[in-house]
Amino acid sequence: MKVEIWSDVVCPFCYVGKRKFENALKDFAHRDEVEVVWHSFELDPNFEAVPGESIHESLAKKKGVSPAEGRRMNDYMTNVAKEVGLNYDFEKAIPANTFLAHQLIHLGAHHGKQDATKERLFAAYYTEGQNIGDLDTLVQLGTEVGLDAAEIREALTNGTYANAVRFDEYQAQQINVRGVPFFVFEDKYAVSGAQPTELFAEVLEKVYDEFKPAKPALVTVADGPACGPEGCD
Predict the structure, then answer these.
(1) Domain 2-211 carries which CATH code?
(2) Cα–chain-centroid distance for residue 109?
(3) Which of 83, 128, 143, 227 is 20 to 30 A (C-alpha) from 157?
(4) DSBA-like thioredoxin domain location, by residue (predicted)?
């Protein structure tokens, strides 16, 4: 069973949604049959970081509110994250463009480390105050999940996975993704937002029951002398 997830690294509900989905998956009897694929989605592709600007000020400017209101929004999000065991630290968070980070996630996928790369970037941004828009920082984070430093630097410098990011975003447009996280189960059922773990659990069960692999039909490859209830041939 395939689950595709569109998200952005600087989307606070995306990290929360990841945890809620993982909690549901952990208790799902057929979790080993679930393939999770992460897709890129940039909330603000044209974002340019302003040196020295806090995440509260950056959010306030984007929302057209005061810095105090921006801080209040982030405080609310911090409390939401605590409910799933995440310790957001917006005082250290550095506003960043995520285009390079999404390319790193695609490189991670190429090496079978997509989820680990996604998780490392989330933690770096929300809990450690690392600049995920910085090339050297991304090289370091990538090596921490087992990727090669030279390959990371070359891929991000040359834009090896830039088109892969853009294709993810094109796909999002085709299925009318307006906000993230956005979960698609078996190309048929969609769940938008960081829904409760219980809802994800229900969807996993429903989709598996509908799409679970059928037992292969029995094919007779040879037919010879045999015995039955009425005797032998």
Answers:
(1) 3.40.30.10
(2) 11
(3) 128
(4) 3-204
